[in-house]
Amino acid sequence: MLDATVLIIDDDDDILLSARLFLKQQVKQVITCKSPKEINVLLSKNEVDIILLDMNYQKGASDGREGLYWLEHILSIDKDYVVILMTAFGNVELAVKAIKKGATDFILKPWENEKLFATISAASKLRESTRKVKKLEKIHSSLQKDLTRGFENIVGQADSIKHLQATLVKVAPTDANVLILGENGTGKQVFAYEIHGNSQRKNQVFMHVDLGSLNENLFESELFGYAKGAFTDAKEDKPGRFELADGGTIFLDEIGNLTLPLQAKLLSVLQNRTVTRLGESKERKVNVRLITATNMPLNEMVAKNTFRQDLLFRINTVELLLPPLRKRGTDILLLANHFMQVFSSKYHKEIRKLSHKTEDVLLNYKWPGNVRELQHVLERAVIMSDGNEISEDDLQLSPQRFAQNNSMPDEMALEDMEKMMVQKAIDKHKGNISRAAAELGLTRAALYRRIEKFGI
């Protein structure tokens, strides 16, 4: 049986009955209707693969003009629809005209069942091939940035990191939902990609979605897609991130920033494993592995009714807590040497080591920006270095930040520390949001949300 939905449009009840009785044994679903005026409603409610379209509907008509009109109408909705025209009047010129206008095939009535099935089978293969090509094009367009960047492997020998790596060995091959917690810059995306890279889905898409940078009004269209005409700028159908990630892994970063209404919409998709594009009513099945991340205290948010408990249960089958860099001891030097080698190669320099003084400075700094800050500091140091080693001066670490960081309690709550870091960055840059966001490794939108959250 073909995994296809066939829509048959003909004003002859006998034709509809005959086609339905035969095709229901050959395809997944058969939908019939007598009038082409129902096309818009049927296509908006069903995911149709193949359309069998009669060419004449008015009594006595035989020129096929109606069929050509409705063919153009269907293809204006989606040019990738597979349309097979049917007529009782054999006309080579008409068949050629129909093919030129975009019809996939042409079949005469009454048909032989074997011929009808062969035509439907070929059309089904064409539809599937077109879908795959279209999906690859959308994936390439949406993921060009991620596909061209290199993901770092997990670097570290601290006990906490070894424990996390042991957990990844058990979790990665499964399809369990994973929630990654940790401060900004601790490497949540690196861990998410490591899970994907060691999973059964490693050869499929890894879709990273930064929920913190998504405008609330764009949430549904970005994640679930939209149909042509759903809103003013919707000039063509567009699949959402969930559809593009079908078969692979979707990583929803900064999930703690979602409002309660958006949490409800996300929960519905996760429970039903289906998405509905804006402007449509039909559901599309999606098969994705879910990984989420946040630096926010979700359990406290559940207690305050700002995060749904049922959504938390859904996303944290396995929970990973990444340690801040200041608690990873000599991993700071391992990471610093790793970044030094990466950026020395990138900038064509022959820097071989960190000076002893530099190592002491790195170990004594508290790293409020964690691994991301260390990475940026080492990139700058490599660029500024004139010799074959990184000196203390090359790091360009602010003495004020040392003093402030040394007074910061290690056990400070994540939320309190985040508020302090946001306030410091804003004060330092005298209210310049762009510069403060860049220092914190956030988008402007994400920083504005934190300002509102903390009442700064």
From TrEMBL:
The modification 4-aspartylphosphate is found at residue 54. Gene3D superfamilies: 1.10.8.60, 3.40.50.2300, Homeodomain-like, P-loop containing nucleotide triphosphate hydrolases. InterPro entries: AAA+_ATPase, AAA_lid_NorR, CheY-like_superfamily, Homeodomain-like_sf, HTH_Fis, P-loop_NTPase, Sig_transdc_resp-reg_receiver, Sigma_54_int. It comes from the Bacteria. Residues 154-383 form the Sigma-54 factor interaction domain. Residues 5-124 form the Response regulatory domain. CDD domains: AAA. The keyword Cell division does not apply. Keywords: Activator, ATP-binding, DNA-binding, Nucleotide-binding, Phosphoprotein, Transcription, Transcription regulation. GO terms for molecular function: ATP binding; sequence-specific DNA binding. One of its GO terms (biological process) is phosphorelay signal transduction system. This is DNA-binding NtrC family response regulator. It comes from Pedobacter alluvionis. The lineage of its organism: Bacteria, Pseudomonadati, Bacteroidota, Sphingobacteriia, Sphingobacteriales.
